[in-house]
Amino acid sequence: MNLTAEEIEAIRAEAAHYEQASAASIEALKIVQAHRGWVSDENLADIAELLGMSPAQLDGVATFYNLIYRRPVGRKVIHYCNSVSCWMLGAEDHREYLQQKLGVKLGETTADGEFTLLPIVCLGACDKAPVMMVGDETHMNVDRAAIDRIVSTRGGS
Amino acid sequence: MGKPLTRNIKPDGTAASLKECIKSGGYEGLRKALKDYQPEEVQHLVKDAGLRGRGGAGFPTGVKWSFVPMGENTPKTKYLVVNGDEMEPGTFKDRLLIEGDPHQLVEGVAVSAYAIQASTAYIFLRGEYHLGAARLRQAIAEAHAAGYLGTNILGSDFSLEVHLHTSAGRYICGEETALINSLEGKRANPRAKPPFPQVSGLWGKPTIVNNVETLCNVPHIVHYGAEWFKGLSRGPDAGTKLYGVSGRVKRPGAWELPMGVTAREIIEEHAGGMQDGYKLRGFLPGGASTDFLLPEHLDVPMDYGSIGKCGSRLGTGTMILLDDQTCPVRMVLNLEQFFAQESCGWCTPCRDGLPWTVSLLQGLVDGRGRPEDLATLERLCGFLGPGNTFCALAPGAMEPLQSALKHFRSDFEAYLPRVAAAGAAHA
Known about the structure:
With 157 residues, chain A is an alpha+beta fold. Chain A contains 7 helices and 4 strands; from the N terminus they run ααααβααβββα.
């Protein structure tokens, strides 16, 4: 088992909330991802063992959801909303600008490992479109100046 | 109190504290339920109040609860699950309630769990709502410490544990049975019904799944009564509703208004009307999975029956506006791309039909359209329509498409190559 004692304890604490431990699968994946940035095959097998699932069962869950990363990502993941209200208010132009600023295409990570750019569906703030999520933080009414500010945090905490 | 749901919502975006919540009558509904009513009486009260589910389908909440087996000889474990997986494009109302007044939701959970005698409740929250998750965690802990959750709540014999379950982003999780599968740690494919979750849901136990806004109404109904709740409305559907507007309006947002307010009042008075230089061409009245309505429908009351008579659905009550400078075909392409991506792939019509729909629409806007494509799109609206798929995702996806083909036909035809279009006209 390659998971840390801290990760194992957090996963077991989550699993205790449910009739069956496998119900903690998403939370367990997110716990490991929070520590390591993404979920490797090796880590996935460890989580599966802890929750009494087969690795295939857990991988079926891990690959189903938009916010679980099965490949390495940058230190910050930028999710730009591509759904209808953001699209109507210029999300495509913003995505082009963001791609230029970062020098990456969708799904790619910057050469310095700082940012990964991914699309996401509606972030639930359509009244403040366009919207982007950077890490855990949602940025609303995004314009070019906001994108400049987000990208300028490169190397910051 | 004309706006019970948003009475504690502060304009600065901070959450109402437990103290503020209590000052405005918070947890009085729970106190009254436990002191004055048997569980079944709370069910009857909610049924009498005419509360209908606010997640989009509009099923009567008290009726849904009445399908749960009650009494001594029924399963000991029952679950209440909060559907907080707000992922329908154009929909952003539950976020307001979760972030602005998390204790209201916790109280709604406690009263509703009492009504069906559930001992455990899970709040299933979409993974992107990080702020909402933090505020709910705090509210659950505070409510527990204050004796509103936990063992022998407020000295009664009712006990309830509430857990926050955050998801990881998939629209299908908002479907009742897919949500249950997801909560069990499985892929979020929908389940066949029957059995219905009210009888056999989470881990085979009786389970009620209710939307956030629905549950937030419940403590107020118990506190102030069914007649008061009905009196909040302007029409046949009881209560208030969180209505919202996004698109090219001056003040996009969400507001708590009497059920039955007109779309015109919402768009022109609350959202400030269209931005200068833009005209309204159409609107999806209740999120991405509803049929387009036209400016001629602006004076129709936004209630379930009235919107239904116009050929659409109230849905989540949060409107997306189409302006005269946005191409309806490209708008529908964006919507279908969303539904195609978010289909779980469990049933063939949805798994194969939605990418086909996207491919045809993309071909049209790329100038590769053929005259017969419009007829194919219309046929797809039938193939993917109600009754042909496992759940409502694909039929919902077809609603904006079928109505756009009807109302904005010339915009679709304008994408057809001229020679082909001319040939078709002479055929």
